[in-house]
Specification:
306 residues; TIM Barrel; 8-stranded parallel β-sheet; Thioesterase; Amidohydro-rel; Metal_Hydrolase
């Protein structure tokens, strides 16, 4: 079969919209710069709405739907972000699914999850579980909130409200993710940003691969291939092809999906380059498998009505 770049409909499984001038995103405030994996992110402190996204994506990439992921809105008002993004969807017809904010170790977690689940586009929640900041810290015994009993009690409520969990954590914490998935088999974990393969040294990639492989046979963990740019370097498929291909190999074409992480990843590449790179990396797969990676899996896992 001749290799061919995918040219069908696409669902972007992880992106953000925001209006920093009116939205309470502390990290996007004019006088704030937090430590960030891509360095100085001042360039994305601008309004970014569906018309901006579609201008970036089209005409070459046929993105027909997107998944909005929480964007570090003021944690004192988790419902404010959900209400806001539903007004965006009503006005523009996009996004088409929402990953909402919830603090799983908070005293009001059950009320928040119930309220989030009642919004028509909410399919999942995200709470970055912090923890070890390096492989050495993880090896020393530092654990994330995935091992905290109160947090896990909140996590246990996700199944009650029919919600997935979007997990963003570096690869060196994935042994905890495996345990979480096994302990709560009725909750789907969607691993964000390819397990964050920061370290591109031979040893770093070897350890990332080993950690990702821990999840290869866990049916209630799937992965989003995204967020693999490098600081101070333009996005290039030659830097990322092996990571993309190995991720698909580890998880299989039924448990992986592509996403842009825009506008965040505009710091390292344009949408044309990133999406074309993804298509190039999997061009040897069958049209059916490419359709799963670019469209069908995101539709299924985020229960999208499109």
């Amino acid at each position: 079969m001749e290799a061919k770049l995918y040219d069908g409909p696409m669902i972007d499984a992880h992106q953000h919209f925001w209006q920093p001038q009116i939205n309470p995103h502390p990290w996007l405030a004019p006088d704030v710069l937090i430590p960030f994996r891509y360095g100085d992110y001042s360039a994305i402190k601008r309004e970014y709405l569906p018309p901006d996204y579609l201008k970036d994506a089209t005409p070459k990439h046929n993105v027909v739907a997107t998944v909005y992921v929480d964007a570090e809105w003021d944690p004192k008002d988790p419902m404010g972000e959900t209400k806001y993004i539903h007004t965006v969807a009503e006005k523009y017809g996009m996004p088409n699914a929402v990953v909402a904010q919830a603090w799983l170790h908070a005293d009001d977690v059950e009320a928040v999850l119930k309220a989030q689940s009642q919004y028509p586009l909410v399919r999942s929640v995200r709470h970055k579980p912090a923890g070890a900041l390096s492989p050495a810290e993880a090896q020393s015994g530092i654990r994330t909130l995935m091992s905290d009993e109160k947090w896990r009690q909140g996590y246990a409520l996700l199944a009650k409200f029919g919600l997935n969990f979007d997990l963003q954590t570096p690869w060196w914490n994935l042994h905890e993710a495996k345990r979480l998935a096994l302990d709560f088999p009725d909750t789907l974990i969607i691993l964000n940003h390819t397990g964050l393969p920061y370290d591109r040294s031979a040893e770093g990639l070897k350890e990332w691969h080993k950690a990702m492989s821990l999840l290869s046979d866990i049916p209630n963990i799937v992965v989003k291939i995204s967020g693999i740019g490098l600081p101070d370097k333009k996005w290039d498929i030659n830097d990322n092809r092996w990571i993309v291909q190995e991720t698909v190999q580890i998880f299989g074409t039924d448990r992986a999906m592509f996403a842009s992480n825009f506008p965040v990843d505009s710091l390292c590449g344009d949408l044309e380059t990133i999406f074309t790179g993804f298509k190039e990396a999997v061009k040897d797969y069958s049209p059916e498998d490419q359709h799963k990676l670019f469209f069908a899996n995101a539709k299924k896992y985020y229960k999208m009505k499109i």
